[in-house]
Please model this.
Amino acid sequence: MPLEVFSFLVTIRAMIQSFSDEATRKVFEGVALNQKEKKRFGDLRIEKAQERLAVLNQATEKDLLLLRSLHYHALRGTGRYSIDTNSRTSTWRITFAWADEDLSDMQLVKIEDTH
Model:
């Protein structure tokens, strides 16, 4: 019996459809930040943020729920969602909205202590 070879076309679909600001897009794409953007991000670990954005670019909501270290959760009353950029103790989060199965309005946000 001859061996049949099948070829499969694998398509990796980007999940991130839009960014809230140019600086977040630059971090995702690995583009150099200008001085103002570097100052804005201050203590943010850029490499870790890039890793998390790459995860978001390929993850479904089910994936995010299973990756507990991301601390994926809905932001009350906003229609937006959040994950940690580095760790639970970091003051930086990545926030976004779902547009069907895609992510939109991605933004790196510093959480200010309100206590």
